[in-house]
Fold this sequence. Notes:
Elements: E1 4-8, H1 12-23, E2 27-31, E3 43-46, E4 49-52, H2 67-73, E5 82-83, E6 87-92, E7 98-102, H3 105-115, H4 120-133, H5 149-159, H6 163-171, H7 174-178, H8 184-189, H9 200-211, E8 217-218, H10 222-235, E9 239-241, E10 246-252, E11 255-261, E12 266-268, E13 271-274, H11 278-285, H12 293-301, E14 307-315, E15 327-338, E16 341-350, E17 363-371, H13 374-380, H14 384-405, H15 409-412, E18 413-419, H16 421-428, E19 461-463, H17 476-491
Parallel strand pairs: 1-2, 1-13, 2-9, 6-15, 13-19
Antiparallel strand pairs: 3-4, 5-8, 6-7, 10-11, 11-12, 14-17, 14-18, 15-16, 16-17
Helix pairs in contact: 1-10, 1-17, 3-4, 4-9, 6-9
Amino acid sequence: MVKKIVIIGAGMAGLSAGCYARMNGYEAEIYEAHTRPGGLCTSWKRKEYTIDGCIHWLTGSSPKDSMYTIWAELGAVQGRRMIDHDVFLRLTDLSGKTLILYCNADKLEAHMKELSPEDSETTELFCRLIRRFTKFTMPMGKAFELFNILDVVKMIVRMMPFRKDMDFSTQTTLGEFAERFKSPFLREVLPIAFPAEYSLFVLVITLSLLHNRAGGVPEGGSLEFAKAIEKRFLNLGGSVFYRQRVVKILEEDGRAVGIRLADGSEVKSDYVISAADLRTTLYDMLDGRHVDPMHEELFRSVELVPSAVQVSFGINMDLSSEPDCVYEIYKLQKPMTIGNHNFELLHSKNFCHDSTLAPKGKSVVQCFFTVDDFTYWEQLVKNKDAYRAEKERIAELVADEMERKYPGFKSAIEVTDVATPMTYVRYTGNWKGTFMTWLIPPDKEKRLRLIKKTVPGLDNFWLSGMWVRPPGGLPAGPVTSRDIIQMICRKDNKKFVTSTP
Length: 501
């Protein structure tokens, strides 16, 4: 008799769980509160413009990275053009001095040495680490929970050449590494690439990926990328039910046996996978009765990646001749107040690399502010007029700044879109509107490297997605879901199999 898996959430983790469940002969149903697939991997239309809300670079956009195999199994990369940038980030101070984080390590090293010849030794170390990890590929085959002693030995042998550099880069924060530079400019701007409290490894592995041209951007925007995986799931025979909010996970004799929907109806199943917000899953759907000490520690003592305010414009102006880069960050002449924060930096992005997102001769420009004052936004949204007025004020501030950068910008605006932390909550239900998950500090990196996908006292239930693979990012969903279906297959004495369309 065919067993049934019910999956909560049609984001990347939920869609992937459904695909792998169907590949292995399980009946699979996904229940999603929203009206569309993708979760955080989304974009939306404003008149003739597409506003993208997710992918800035895709880990595994080419076969040079091991993640590509998984995207291919999910039908996400076949026939899809990937756009590779030459520059990851341009960081400019008030004097106009600019650090360009080239995607190519050789160009980056030459540029940094030109900026600060006295820092050649530190620059060489930084770029050596980038080149070193271009040869490193994350193992994506077998779920770590299923490793035997031979698998562990193979992993140790495989990791051995990278161990020293891995330990150094994961146990050193970006801020700490920046202090090695003699140049005040490099000490100041390098930690801007990612938060200073992130490990150095995050920046190094990102630049290694981009050096390999394996971190491109899928043409068409994030929602189209998600829809490709939804199509794969449906073609495999799965079912997705939208506008169906799950409120409870049903239990019998210590086993998960299905879900209850907001309308009171119940869906029975042999297994349940939650690819939804972790806090909602543990404390609402499970009433706080199955909280692992590791999960409790995360909520109690580990910070979240902050939420964001995202301001996007569709403009009747061609910016395709602007310098190519994933991001541009520059210092403001005057701080900009967003919510409870004064920002001295502006993160901007020009989407002209993808001609499908705006009509010919027009452009989408986006500015991004990370904000950790969720309570402010949570209270503000209760007053709809005040909330709308604040969004309009922020849009005007950003438009004024863009006018200084691109004369004529304001008169060319045809579309304005402002997303806040409450937008993330509305779209995904994520706790505090985070667009990623846990910000694991280096001193807890080893102990919290493998977040549990199960909960105590409840069999036949799994947690999937970014919450159990921090800090998140698109690969977290497919990887954790693939692992879980492997574990279910092991439980049922079935051989785990995959296929590509």
